[in-house]
Each structure stands twice: as structure tokens, then as C-alpha cells.
Structures
1.
Amino acid sequence: MSAINRTLGAAAIVMLSVAPAGAQNGASYAITGAEVHTLAGASMPGATVVINNGVITAVGTDVDVPVGAQVINATGMHVYPGLFDAMTTLGLTEIGQVDVTNDYREYGPWNPHLVAATAVHPASEHIPVARANGVTHAVTAPSSGGGFRGGGGSAAIPGQGTLINLDGWTVEEMEAQHSVGLVINWPTIQTMRFNFQTFNREEIPYREAKEAYEEQLEALTEWIESARHQLSSSRRWRRRWRARFRSSSGWMARRTSETPSNTPRNKASTSCSPAPEAHGRWRTCWRRRTYP
């Protein structure tokens, strides 16, 4: 029983050493008397960890406790850095058999615009459980269950992952980085598939599985190339219109500065907005710009 209490206490200390809620609001904490494992060298028995404003500022056996800091006596316990889950659906799913509590995938094979942060549920019961076991940060990402249609899943690109801190009441408090990368379910050669008519797994000839893999890989390659082409075209279009706008703005500025205040109105222009009172300013017409 004492071993269990020591383990639970150590897990709680891990959380305090990374991002206690009070420390993020400017409070100071000092964990004293514990054996600290920094993973960068030998462990330090009887060390002190100082946290100011949510940041670890000092670790060692000869560290002084700041005045006014809340002291946490961890004698006989161990302090470890928080664990980082690099790929999970934490916060996106609750009960596997209750569909309305799962929001980790969408319909369609191509969903690069979806970001996990928009679906994270801060009140999920899985988050405090993971936090109590020492997990302090995680990259939560949408998933499709295995890849392409016919290969165990429904999405080749299910969306973008979000880096979250497991300590927070809202998504805004938990979000450390809105998007950390695009999730791609790379196709694989699968020689087994599930037959929904017989509810049994059946073996696929290797040649057929290889052809399906090549088709999926070709589809993914074409999608990536198409995305690159659209991005390049969009950039060229923006550069072209920026250049035109700058050129037009410069020409208009020159014409404005050169136009005398008593220049007669251009009679050829029609459907114009009311002329401004100040001389030298431009009026907008249907076909061209003219000056009063």
C-alpha cells in the first residue's frame, strides 16, 4: 500500500513540476527533499525544484527556496519530467461504442483543412487519467482507423494535429500550438481484409494487394502534386495582382500630383460616383478612373 501511495504522489509531483495551474498565474512553488531524475545525467537525491510562473527555474541539491514560494515536501518520492504523447486521439474520443462522443474522423479521404483543436473536449475523463499517470503534453490528431478506403480506413489525410497541455479548463488554455503538422495515412500492402458479408477475415492474393497499394500510392502522389500546383498558382496570382496594384497606385499618385486643381471634368465618363469636394482626388467609374 505504501508503494502505491509513493507512486501516486510521484505522479502528482510530476504534474506540479511541469505546469501547475497556480504557477501559470505568477505563483512560485518549491518541491523539496525528492530524488530528481532530469534524464540528462545522474539522479539527484534530496534535490529541490523551483517553479516560477509555470517555468522550472532551478534544479539541484544546493538550490534556495524563494521567499514566499509554496513548499511541497516530497521526501522519499521521485520527480520525473512530464511524459509527452507524440500521437494520440486524447480529447477527441470518449466512449468507443457511443458514436456521438467520438469526433476524431470525418467523411471523405482528403481533409487537410481539419484541425484537431476545433474538436478537443477539455472535460474528457481520459485527460485527468492521463495527467495522473504523468502525461503532461500530447499531440492529439484526427485519425481514420488505418488509411485508404478498402484498406481499413476512410481517409488518406484526416487532418492536422494540435499540441495540447493537459492542464486547462478550456481549449484555449490547453492549446500550446494550434497546428503541428499534417497527418498522412501512408498506404501499406495489406494481404488480409474483413468481409462484412461473412464477418470473417479473409486473405488477399499478394498480387492483388500490391496493385491496390500502388493505386493508393498513386492517388496520394497525385493529390500532393495537385496541392503543390494550386499553391504555386495562388502565389503567382497574388504576386501578379500585387504588382499591378502597386503600379496602378503609383500611376494614380503621379497623376494626382500633376493634375491642376482647375482641370475640367472628363465628359466621356459615365455612371460615376459623386465627385469629391477636394481637388486632386479620384472618382470611381464603371469603365475607368477619372479625375474632376
2.
Amino acid sequence: MVEVYNAVARVARLPVTVLVLGETGTGKELVARALHQFGAHPDGPFVAVHCGAIPDTLLESELFGHVRGAFTGADRDRRGALREAQHGTVFLDEIGDVSPSFQTKLLRFLQEKTVRPVGAERSEPVDVRVVAATHRDLAALSATGSFRQDLYFRLAGYEVRLPALRDRLTDLPLLVEHFRAAAVRELGLAEAPPASHAVLAAFAAHAWPGNVRELEQVVRRLLIDTGRSPTPPSRRVSSRRPAGRPHRPLRTLPLPLPPLLPRPPPLPDPPRRSRASTRWSAGTSSRSSPPPAETGRQPRGSSASSARPSRAS
């Protein structure tokens, strides 16, 4: 990577178009941002356009802009990425995936340094630096006619080739430590120790088809899986109440509450004493219960002396 740093330092302040070549995930956009940061206009805008993710019908409007009413749905003017990056840098990612018709329009812009929005009647000059990137071999594609050779020569004013991660394994310890510190800071994870020699040896034996981007995701997953993520403060439960803070009862409870013990059976009602009815007619009682039996009690109002035999005087 020292060669890459030296190449960026040599060409950063020169007004030339730079073509960054490398596999997917090697950090081509980082190189483009470094060229902008150390270039002649670091305070200008940096606008990135992913050419491979936008259809050709929309890519021209995305890059050059359009005027109101230029096509169906164009209800307002659009400046476009090239005019938005005035006095700055525009990054054209995956430039090798554009169609031949768009290659012709891009070539005209690189030759004349003017932009004509879709539906406009005149062109406007722009002062912008172009940095393009692709994972394809544009030299081989231009030799077979799949990519315009004159456009390739315009884009490749200076080439910066990024090696794959498997070809620079000596950078693994630095990259792993960088991604570890970044994950701890961005995800709020607990501090983790540096990677051990066994982990670095396992990383060195991997092919890394996703390059640096894959390595970053692997480091993040390892930190999360090893339980380095702390419990959020809002979910921590403490059984002790700080001193001086009054106890606040719960405002709501989940209803209905489950019974802790089975409910005991109801107790029987105590027996009630009722006065016996003395009125009977034709063997039928006015009540459902039979008349009470004789208990030997005297009727009310009679004296005890009347029931006892009189003594002879």
C-alpha cells in the first residue's frame, strides 16, 4: 500500500482525470476521497455516483441534470451531479458498466468540459475533477470493442491500482486493529483486547474474496458474538434504590393477575333458628317443614309454681 500512498500524493494536486482500478471491496472510494482531500480544492463538494446501479434512462439526468418538462415526471429542474460538484470532485463508480450510448455522452463532456442538461437549449461550463473507478479491466474491454477506447484514454489520465487483500497480508494487523477500534467506537461496544496471533493466523489463511470490506464485517461480527455488547442503560434493572429517592409505586399492573393459590371452597351457612308455626289445617302445613317436636318447655307466661306439686302445709 505504500505505492498507493505515493501515487495519491503525486497526482492529488494535478488537474488530471484519475482511474482507480481494483477488485470489489478494496477501497476505491477511499482513494477517491483521499484525492479530493489532498487535492487543489479540498473545501469543494465531493459527489459520488454509482453508475452501475442506475439505468441508462436515468443516468444521464443523474449526471447532467434536466430542466422542468424535459420528460414525463420532470416537474422541476435538476442540477445533476456534475454541476453540484462545481469546484470539487465527482466520483464515477463502476464506470465499466455503462452502456455504449452513455459512453459517447461522457466522452463529449470530458473533451469540452461543458454540461447540457436534458431538455436544455444550451450548455454550461463546469470546473470539476473526475475520478472514475471500476473492477473491470478496461484495457482488455477496449481492445475487444466492449468499451470505447478513446473514452478509456480520457479516463486513464493517471491510473491507481489497488491490490487485493490476499496480496498484502502484511497489512492485516493494522487493518484488524483499525476496524476493531472503529467498531467499539461506532457501535458502543465494550473495550476488547487486540486480536491474538491465532486469530491473525486464521485471517491470513483466508482467501478474502470480499477484500477489505469483508474483513471489516468479520471483525464486527466477532466483537458482537463474543459478548462485547453491554446492556443498554435503559434496560438495566437494579434491586437497590438510591438513598434519598422516594419509593414510587407502579402505575399500572398487567391484568388479570394469575392466582397464586387456589381459592378455598366457600364455608356453609350457620343454621338459623326459626319460630315453629302452630297453625295447621287438615294435615297440611302452611310451611314446608313439619311442626316442631315437644321439648318440654313451658309456654310463655306460665309460672314455675303451677307446674310443681303443692306441699301440704
3.
Amino acid sequence: ILMGFSNLEKIVAQITADRMMLKMPVALISNGTLPTQKVVTGTLANIVARVKASGMKAPAIIVIGKVVALRDQLNWFTPPLLLQGKRILVTRPEHQASELVGILEGHGARVTSIPLIRIVPSKNTAQIKARLSALDQFNWLIFTSVNGVDLFLKAVAKHKISIASLKNKKFAAIGKKTAEHLEQAGIKVDLVPKDFVQEALAATMIKTIAKESKGVLLAHSAGSRPVLEQKLRAAGLKIETLDLYSAEPIKENHARVHTMFAKRQVDAVMLTSSSCAESFLSVFKKAQLKAQTKGVVVASIGPITSDTARRAGLPVAVEADVYTIEGITAALIEYYQGQKRVQA
């Protein structure tokens, strides 16, 4: 299909009206035969998500059918793929994994996605209702994750609070993606720290916000690190918390991960949060951790996640400088190119 890139979702929807077509192979090719050639493959069930995750832009050719399976045999031109053939395990929650999977596959990796945590919305509806009813008490709202933003937006919609009514608030976010989710909802973000960790946001806010600030609402996950709350409170700021969700381990997936490591089927594992790291660590008996993960490159999204792994005795070989999925991918590529290694 030529000139169909902008209508990809509609094309897929029309074809998959016949549910038997969901497993049909698909490939999109942009900049064919150029050094910037990019190919994204998948099935009609997942190709839209994979294309979005890859960052591919128009124009692109769409190929649908079993002929896509011949790509490896007929492939006469492909730019160098920096993670070609590397077997990489992604442990992110299922609803967030596709973007990282797409990026890694775009670099030639063979990716297995086994979510080791799930995001569980808070059942404390009384606290949520109380905090939202008292929004007039706060002039700053802080978000530490994309998940927190998404659940906050659902909560304000449920309680019929308009986004327009929040225009007089100031918003702070940890991480570029967190800020983007707020902005996509029409909310202006006033503060994003250079380093995407609680310590950096606390330091910046203490310098920025006067102690006579009306109040600060910290929207985060239950059981998250208390660093930000403690530092702001110690600085004299009036702060309340809103627990929107918890990150719970998916223990039923532990056996699959254990089997992959026992069979030496993993070259690298991506740990994109401390919660993912904790769940991954619980896959193995403590005495066997180093032996069973020997030879596997452990990649961490940042220093907090790295500390979680190292405290349990798991060596970390790769740590992102920029604490994003793009950053952890870049750090892994640098590792395999021999350019950068961190102290395990």
C-alpha cells in the first residue's frame, strides 16, 4: 500500500474487522535503500503500537501478507543494526512495554517482554475524593510518573473536575514523559528537574517555592520512596500526598523468567524502575542470584534502580545517563560498542 501511512489505523481496523486477520504479518518501510532506511514489522494486532513506538514518519510503504515472513531471506539491504541478534528481556508493565520493545527491535534485538509488575489503581476512594475536593488548598501539584498522571486524569474526570479549573495551579513533573502526558491533557507544566529523580525535584522546588506557599499535593504511588515528601516537609512546605496506585509484582511470571535464565536464553535484561528490579530479584534465590544471572548484561534506567539491584547483590553493567527508555537503550548500545561501562 502506497501513501497509506497516515491512515494506518483505519486500514488495520478495516482489515481486522475479520478477526481471523489479526495474526497476519505486516511490515512498514520508510526511506527504502537509503542509509536512513527503517523497517518495522509485526502483525495486524500490534503494528500500530509498534510503528508509534518506533518514531517512524511518513512516507512509508505498507506490506501486508505472508510475504513479510520472507524478509530475512530476501533482505539485500539493511543498515547496521547496533543490537543485532541480542536477546533482550523487557520487564516493564504490559501497558508500557510496547514502546521500549519497538525501540529495541528497531536496533535489531530479539526481544521478549515479560511484565514483572502491574499497576494497580488505589482502592482508597475516600482519600482520592477528599484530596480532589480540597484542591483549592494547593497551588502546586507534583507528579512523579506517567501512571500517576493517567490515573489523576481519570479521577478528575470521574469527579467532574474540569481541566480548565486547574489553570491557576502550578505543576511539577519528574521526567519528560510525565510532563508530556500532562501537556497532552492541556495542562501547562511549570517545573521539570534536569535529573529525573526525587532528589533533583526537591532541590529545585525548595529554591523555587516560597515557604508561605498555599500548599503542595504530591500525587504518586503507595510505597514509593519518601525522599521528596520528607525534603519538602523539612524545608517548611505544607505538603499532602495522594496515593493513586501501587506497583505490584506479577509472581505468576517469575517461573518464565527463571526458565529463560536457566536455559541461558537472555543476553541482557532491562530494569526500568526499582519496582521492576525488586520483582526481578525475587525470581531467584539470594544464594543463587549471581550464578544464575552470570553473563547477562543488567541494564538500569538510572541510579535509584541501580542501587536497588546492587544492594541485593546483582551487578549492574549499564546505567542510563538520561533516565528514559531512549536513554537506557542508548547506554546499552554504547556498552556493546565497548564505549561505556559502569562500575558493577
